[in-house]
Amino acid sequence: MSVDETSGSDAAPARIRERAAALGPYLSDRLGRTADIAEVSLASEGMSASTLLVDLHHGERIVLRAQERVDDQLLSLDGAAQFHLLRDVVAHGVPAPPALFFEPDPDILGLPFLATAGLPGAAVVPWSSAGREFLARAGRGPAGAQLLDILVGVHSVPVDGENVVRAVGLPSSDSGRATLKRLRSAVEGNVVQAEPILTDALGWLDANLPPCPEPTLVHGDFRAGNLLFEGERISGLLDWEFAQVGDPARDLAWFMAKSNRQSDDLACDMVPVAEFVADYRRAGGGDISPSSIAYWDVFMLVYSTAMWLRSTALWRAGRLDDLRIARWTHALPKLRVMILDALDEAGR
C-alpha cells in the first residue's frame, strides 16, 4: 500500500520489490555473511507496511517490513521501536520474528525498513471457509494450548527490560488515560461527519476505564490472522507494531471479539470463547475480570473504526491507492452497530 500520490513513487510496492532484489551486497555487509538473493516476493501490502520475503540461495529467508510512516494517533510503533521490542520478546521465549536490524535510511529501499529472520510456517486467511475449518481443527489440537502459552508468554515479558523501555516506555499509572486521549484524537481527527455512536462510546470509555494494577506487555493485535502455523502447530506471532504496556485484558478481549470470528462459540474460530479467560488463567495468566473484557472489547471496536476512518479519508484524498480500503467504507456501518451492541452488553 502506498501513500504516495503517484504509482511511480519509490514507496510503491513494485518499486520496493525491485530495489530489494538488488540488495545482495547491502545485506551481505549488514549481516556479515554472504547473502545471494534467489527470489523476492511481496508477502502483503498491509494496512501499515509492505512486507517482502527475501529468499537467499542457501535457503535462508529474510523478511523486510517497509513502513510508510507511523501515525502516532493510532498507537503504532515505528521500525526502530519494533526492533528493540522484538529483541526482548524473542529473548524471553515468545515465538516472534528475531530482529536482525533496522534501516532508517529511505534511500536503500525507498522507505525505512525492519529486517527480521524468517520463521517457518504460513499464515491462514481466517475469513475463508478453508481457513475457518483449519483454525477449528488446529484449536482442538496442540495449537489450542500453544496460543494460551504464547499469550501468557507475551504478558510475562518484563516491562522494565532495557529494550522494552526503549520501544514503548516505562509503565505508568496514566497509560490507560494516555491511550484513550490518543484514541479520541484519532477519531476526532478523521471523522468527515457527525459520529454520535463514536462520541457516545468515547464518553463511556472515559467514564469506565478499569483499574490495571499490574500492567504487562500487550501485543495489541493478538488474533488468528497474526499467527503462523507449521502443520497444525503455531510457529510464530507476527505484527508487533501495536504493542504497548497496558492492560492484558485488551489482548484477550480482541482475541474473543465477535469482529474476529464467524463462529458463535469459538474465539478467533479456534478455541471456546466461554472458557478462554479461565484457560488463560490456568495457563499461568493473571486474573481478568468480565468487566475488563467488556471494556476492552468496546475500546478495540472504536480503535478499529478509527483506523478505518483514517485509511478511508486518506484513500478519498488520493494518498492511498489500495482498493481494499474502498470496500471498508461499506463496512463502517456494521462496525458502528457492533459498537452499540458491545456497549449494551457492557451494561451501558
From TrEMBL:
InterPro entries: ACAD10_11_N, AGP_Transferase, Aminoglycoside_PTrfase, Kinase-like_dom_sf. PANTHER family: AMINOGLYCOSIDE PHOSPHOTRANSFERASE-RELATED-RELATED (PTHR21310). Residues 40-285 form the Aminoglycoside phosphotransferase domain. Keywords: Kinase, Transferase. One of its GO terms (molecular function) is kinase activity. This is Aminoglycoside phosphotransferase (APT) family kinase protein. SUPFAM superfamilies: Protein kinase-like (PK-like) (SSF56112). The keyword Kinase applies. Transmembrane segments: none annotated. Signal peptide: none annotated.
